Amino acid sequence: xxxxxxxxxxxxxxxxxxxxxxxxxxxxxxxxxxxxxxxxxxxxxxxxxxxxxxxxxxxxxxxxxxxxxxxxxxxxxxxxxxxxx
Length: 85
What we know:
The protein contains three helices and three strands; from the N terminus they run E-E-E-H-H-H. By secondary structure, it is an alpha+beta fold.
């Protein structure tokens, strides 16, 4: 399943996640933001269980911002899992 979430509070605009039926991360793309860093993060979590990736990234802040691109990825994964059922 593919799920797209509009990011909030970050330089990136949206996060697109693709999960397997078992809840593993098949692919993630982040539109906007720090291109190289986000491609690296997306590559590192590919194949990982979405719950494990959420636990590692949720709550990370970017400077003084209340959120970050990794936090937004975690939120997108949570919403995708909820939609997947």
